[in-house]
Write a structure and sequence with these properties.
Radius of gyration: 19 Å
Number of helices: 9
Order of helices and strands: HHEHEEEHHEEHHHH
Number of strands: 6
Mean pLDDT: 84
């Protein structure tokens, strides 16, 4: 039932809800990125295993998460963690190697959850990105399509972040990660997502209300029932 309701909403919602952010000041944008980096650092700190902890900043395009990975590494370093940055584009070392001396290794790159890498990651942060048109490299396009179909990287990741450089938010966190944190960051992140979009939401997405009404009708709630 829940899946059918979500499908009804998806069919009815017009436009991309990610493009409705109202202008925010540079200070507000910097504060949003700092809060997100702090929330991700909390998720890393909650991992109970001997160091080094390996964290992947995964996406569909190379180095898409480099900036956010830098923010995370900076937040961890500010907490006194010995943090090393690596990139798929310019790796310091392969992800399979676990050197001594570092508390955390943060690696950014693309398709980092593919089976060929094994399971080197203690936490995967996946960047949700809008669909992109076919590029000049058909082999790359096929590899991405296989990755999405076979791995389902958004579902497999521990944390999913909306890939908006100006206003990134957590859009999903795996139950196991939330359990380790002892709290669910969704309410605060949901408020952060909708706050800059609220003023123009109804005019930008007029099809939402009919979609919600259709979903509620499909649910078939009777008087006195709640959902």
């Amino acid at each position: 039932m829940k899946a059918r309701i979500c499908e009804s909403l998806a069919r009815g919602c017009g436009g991309d809800h990610n493009d409705g952010v109202n202008p925010a000041s540079a200070a507000d944008r910097a504060a949003r990125r700092e809060r997100l980096a702090g929330a991700l650092a909390d998720a890393v700190d909650a991992i109970d295993r001997p160091p080094p902890v390996h964290v992947a900043m995964d996406g569909l395009t190379a180095a898409a998460g480099a900036g956010l990975a830098d923010d995370l590494a900076g937040a961890l370093a500010a907490r006194g963690r010995r943090c090393r940055r690596a990139s798929q584009e310019a790796p310091v070392r392969g992800p399979h190697q676990r050197p001594t001396g570092d508390d955390v290794v943060v690696v950014d790159g693309s398709l980092l959850q593919r089976p060929g890498l094994g399971s080197p990651w203690d936490l995967v942060i996946y960047l949700h990105q809008p669909p992109t048109p076919p590029g000049p490299d058909p082999d790359r396009d096929r590899a991405v399509a296989r990755y999405l179909e076979e791995v389902d990287p958004e579902r497999a990741a521990g944390v999913v972040v909306e890939d908006d450089p100006a206003w990134p938010v957590i859009r999903r966190i795996a139950p196991a990660v939330a359990d380790r944190l002892g709290r669910d960051p969704h309410p605060a992140e949901t408020r952060a997502f909708f706050a800059p979009r609220a003023a123009t939401w109804e005019e930008r997405f007029p099809d939402d209300d009919p979609a919600y009404a259709a979903a509620v009708a499909e649910l078939g709630l009777r008087a006195g029932q709640t959902a």
